[in-house]
Structures are given as C-alpha cells and as structure tokens.
User: Which sequence fits this backbone?
C-alpha cells in the first residue's frame, strides 16, 4: 500500500489531469453516439408530414390564384354590363330628383311673388267681431289655392314649405302650418311663371277674396315681385301613417 502511494505521488500532476479529461471526453462521445440514433429516427419520422403540409399549402395557393382570376373576370363582366345600363341609372336618378322636388324635399329658387297678409288696423265698429278683422287659416288657404290655380309650382308660408300633406289650421290666436305655430304678418312665398302675379290678379277667386276680406274688413294684402324667390325644403316627415282613397264623384245621372 505504501509502495502504491509512493508510485502515485511520483506521477506528475499534469498526467493525472490529462487522464481525467480524456476519461470525461470518452463519456461525452459515448453519450452523443447513444442519442444520435433516436434524433435521426425522429427527423425521419417528422419529415413526411411537413412535406405534405407544404404541398397542401401550395395546392390551396393555386386554388386561390384561380379564384382571383375568376373574380377579376366577373368584375370586368359586371363593369361592361353597367356601362350598358348607365342611361337607365341616369334616368332613374332624374326621376328620383323630380319626385323629391314634387314632395318638397328640395329647396328651390326662381321667379315668383311674395304676398303678405296682416291683421286689420282699422277701428272695429260697434257690434263688430274681433275675429273678422284678423287673418285666419281660411284666408291663407284661399290665397294658397288661388296661387296653385294661377300656376305656382312651390309655396311656403313664413318659411314652412307646403306639400300634399300640409295643413293650415286656426289654433287659438295663431295659425298652425305643418307643425309650426305662425304669427302675423303671414308671408306666402310662391315660385312660378314670370307672369304669376298677372294670372293671380285676373283670377275671379282672388278678386272675391280681396273684396270680402281686404275691402270689407281691412285685412292687409300686399304683393312684392323680387328678382329671385326662395322656397325652403320641407322640414317635416313625408311618411303617411293613415290614408284611404277618396272615391271620385259620379257624374250626374250615373249611379
């Protein structure tokens, strides 16, 4: 035992270190060789699914390219058909605009007149009624009807556009037009032909109105002919919730 210890002490320390290093290197090489086979087997087993996935993606990409070409062709076809129907679309747009104008949804300006109606300023005689000397809804309706008959194309009362669904009613001490309460003076704005005032003046109905209301009770009626008359768009709803057809009157002698 003493002899073995003496021999070990006689071996240089660098030789011992080298031996230990070589031994550890041997273990590492053996471990690497042992783990190489499973890694190769794992790679070999995983390669076919990855290849198949790549092939599937390539096939999907090819299908998408074909679909894109088909859609592009469809777009060109629709564009070609749209060019042929451009005139129809343009005609429909014009008809829609005409319908909006007829419904009062578009502001208008042009030649026309402005009539102003105001309450009488004359003294009310004994026994007279105050209501007779005030502008009423009936007065405005009469003027509006006469303007329509004279050829007016658009009308407004104090900025309220008149449409087929408009109503002019007496409510208390004011007049209700559409959903707005108006107070005197009442300005009836009308767009129409350049000779609108001449046509209105020649109307028997308008002459009767002047005699009955202006001459008899002093209701103020004045007319202006500005260069341009502006009628605003209708601000209310054009939706009719309840309606029913009104039968046309039968000619005399026909049941």
Assistant:
């Amino acid at each position: 035992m003493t002899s073995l210890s003496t021999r070990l002490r006689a071996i240089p320390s660098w030789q011992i270190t080298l031996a230990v290093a070589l031994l550890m290197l041997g273990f590492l090489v053996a471990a690497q060789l042992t783990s190489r086979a499973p890694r190769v087997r794992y790679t070999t087993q995983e390669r076919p699914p990855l290849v198949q996935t790549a092939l599937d993606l390539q096939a999907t990409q090819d299908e998408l390219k074909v679909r894109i070409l088909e859609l592009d062709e469809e777009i060109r076809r629709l564009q070609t058909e749209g060019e042929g129907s451009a005139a129809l679309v343009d005609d429909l747009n014009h008809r829609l605009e005409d319908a909006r104008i007829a419904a009062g949804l578009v502001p208008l300006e042009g030649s026309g007149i402005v009539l102003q109606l105001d309450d009488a300023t004359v003294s009310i005689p004994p026994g007279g009624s105050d209501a007779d000397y005030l502008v009423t809804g009936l007065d405005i309706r009469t003027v509006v009807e006469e303007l329509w008959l004279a050829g007016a194309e658009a009308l407004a009362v104090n900025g309220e556009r008149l449409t087929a669904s408009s109503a002019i009613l007496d409510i208390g001490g004011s007049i209700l037009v559409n959903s707005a309460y108006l107070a005197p003076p009442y300005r009836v704005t009308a767009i129409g032909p350049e000779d609108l005032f001449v046509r209105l003046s020649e109307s028997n109905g308008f002459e009767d109105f002047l005699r009955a209301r202006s001459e008899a009770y002093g209701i103020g009626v004045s007319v202006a002919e500005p260069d341009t008359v502006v009628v605003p768009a209708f601000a209310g709803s054009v939706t009719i919730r309840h309606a029913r057809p009104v039968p046309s009157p039968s000619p005399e002698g026909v049941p």
Remarks:
- The longest strand covers residues 112-118.
- Confidence is low (pLDDT under 50) at residues 36-46.
- The longest helix spans residues 13-84.
- DSSP finds six helices and ten strands in the chain.
